Amino acid sequence: MLFAPNSNLVSQLNQARGIARRYLVTNGFDGALTMLGLMVGFQTAGDRIDLSMAINGCLGAAVALLVSGLSSAYLSETVERRKELQELEGALLSDLTNTNYGYASRAIPIMVALVNGLAPFIISVLIIAPLWLADNNLVQFSISPFSAAIINALLLIFLLGVFLGRVSNQFWLWMGIRTLLIAMITVALILLLEILLLKP
Amino acid sequence: MSKIRRLILDVLKPHQPNIVDFASCLADLASDYRIKITVTAVDKMTENILLGIEGSDLQFDNIREEIQKMGASVHSIDEVDVDGMASP
């Protein structure tokens, strides 16, 4: 066989799944709430916001979240893994560069960084999809495209909660409602700030 | 050509992989390898094991390479059984 997956290396990479899952939810939630905030802002601004301008702004934020997620997770995970490897090398008095530990310590930061960067980017793109569809006349919404995007964001945030519930073996509906409540509080805070700060 | 039938190695290894996975990886090197591991000392990040391997023709270099791949190192060869195969 040309390549036989080493069970030890596979188990090392499996241990990183928990970290990747945590980053998926944390940064996915970041992306969803950022887009929700933008959509609420656009919606309350009324007709003054051009759709293509809003899409450009949101895409800019999504790319910034992607790069921020990729770089921050890669840098922090690389440092942590290198520190762990050095400690283990000190205890074993041997070089672990070409061992499964060495391969895992190089592969795990890349894997975690991809999850951390792509999660908010993909969620953001999904949230702004109604704007793009409306802007290109592919779908005619009976509500404003911004309202459709807000509903989309709330749905995705609810699904993130459901995912958390499934992972933690808790009641999925309760976890979904909890994350939805956080999103509603965010919307309420944005509206409150707009009322307080942008009084005519 | 002589053939190694049994080896007892003193090995220092990290806690992961545990001895079940460690033994399984070594046993998979050949179809007739039989592995026995005894943990002799446990430290904060490492453990010492006595690794016994039996087989009809043990390939020591392959065994040592696999041990090193798992982050462990052979400290000493404590016992060895070798059969001579001299032609008459």
Protein described:
The complex is a heterodimer of chains A (200) and B (88). Chain A is built from five helices and no strands. Helix content of chain A is 83%, strand content 0%. The termini of chain A are far apart. Chain A is elongated, with a radius of gyration of 21 Å. By secondary structure, chain A is an all-alpha fold. Chain A has one domain. Chain B is an alpha+beta fold and 88 residues long. Chain B has one domain: Alpha-Beta Plaits (2-Layer Sandwich). Helix content of chain B is 22%, strand content 47%. Chain B contains two helices and four strands, in the order E-H-E-E-H-E. Chain B has a four-stranded antiparallel β-sheet, covered by helices on one side. The two termini of chain B are 12 Å apart. In chain B, 24% of the residues are buried. At the A-B interface, helix 1 and helix 2 of A face strand 1 and helix 1 of B.
Q: Care to give the gist of this entry?
A:
With 200 residues, chain A is mostly helical.
**What top-tier CATH class of chain B fits best?**
Alpha Beta
What order do the helices and strands of chain A follow? Answer: HHHHH
Question: Mean pLDDT of chain B, as a whole number?
Answer: 93
Structural class of chain B: alpha+beta
Report the β-strand fraction of chain B as a percent range. Answer: over 45%
Q: In angstroms, what separates the terminal alpha carbons of chain B?
A: 12 Å
Helix content of chain B: 10-25%
The CATH topology of chain B is given as Alpha-Beta Plaits
Largest pleated sheet of chain B: 4 strands, antiparallel
Helix percent band of chain A: over 70%
The strands making up the biggest β-sheet of chain B line up spatially as 2-3-1-4
- What's the total number of strands of chain B? 4
- The whole-angstrom Rg of chain A is 21 Å
Strand content of chain A: under 5%
- State the helix count of chain B: 2
Query: How many beta-strand elements of chain A?
Result: 0
Query: Residue ranges of chain A: pLDDT <50 for 5 or more in a row?
Result: 1-5
Q: What is the oligomer described by this structure?
A: heterodimer
State the shape of chain A. elongated
Average pLDDT of chain A works out at: 88
The helix-and-strand class of chain A reads mainly alpha
